[in-house]
Amino acid sequence: MSGTWEPDLLGDGYEQQVLELGPDPDGEGEVCAVVVRRVVRPEEKVRGAVLYVHGFSDYFFQTGLADFHAERGLAFYGLDLRKSGRARRSGQTAHYASDLEQYDAELERAMEIIAADHGVDTPVVVLAHSTGGLITPLWLDRRRRAGRTAPVAGLVLNSPWFDLQGQPVLRGPVTQALRVLAKVAPLRALDLPKSTVYGDSLHTSGKGEWDYDVVLKPLEGFPVTVGWLNAVRRGHARLHRGLEVGVPSLVLRSDKTHYAREHTDASDRADTVLDVKQIARWAGCLGGETTVVPVVDARHDVFLSLPAPRAAAYDVLGEWLDRHLG
């Protein structure tokens, strides 16, 4: 598979390739995805690869995560999904897809690029965060049922979104309402409270260490649309019935959740986005060998935590990679 690599916004050592995906099934013009690769340096030996998939209101910018894997002989590729990050085009609703299965197209194209760069037998670890942590197990389950597990050798999920937050008594009625509204007003934005608590904990404009692009990843996040959330809830239901991703899985999460309207010190030592108890409850639905590790004081993105929990998360990941990739 051939394509054109261009300089990426991350600067030296990173290149991007635009994947044209054709007409949008949801009627918002032509869609694309963008693969970003960390350029393998001459002195680095490649024994495998990593495909990273971001979450909602997110894109790939975590160069430290890429360097960590490169030090272990794993070529690193980040995928900005359709209508997300680098791949969003004018007039398109941020992150919108009416069916999570639509993302299979760019995931498969990204796998083809990795094979073209490093060979078809190169083992690939899929690493995904938050909503990406729901999208990728569903994709891998479909691949397995089609007899196409290889060359994926492992799945690492960083605070995956396995269920809707809130009281159980509300989740059923909300889900039913979404099914109805998605048929008549799929692009309607839900009237949800806006918060910059998580963004403030990460970005240099607040309390954080990372100077990422707040146009691609707004501090308050993008609006949540009816049709997209309905697709997520259908994905949750499929997960809850049980998947078989076909490879060993590692699930990393914080040890606690802390919801707040304003940023405090507690916001830096907890998941302020998802309910970690739900992650613990549903992790067993991935099938096969699954390792779940709560990281004390981790943020929603465990690899963007404060230095101590971040180091702990990397230690767990490194040991897991050594055990499963040799």
TrEMBL record:
The keyword Cell membrane is assigned to this record: no
Origin superkingdom: Bacteria
Gene3D superfamilies the UniProt entry points to: alpha/beta hydrolase
Family matches, as PANTHER family: PHOSPHOLIPASE-RELATED
Record-given protein name: Alpha/beta hydrolase
Keyword Hydrolase in record: yes
SUPFAM superfamilies: alpha/beta-Hydrolases (SSF53474)
Ranges for domain Serine aminopeptidase S33: 45-255
One GO MF term attached to the UniProt entry: hydrolase activity
Alphabetized UniProt keyword annotations: Hydrolase
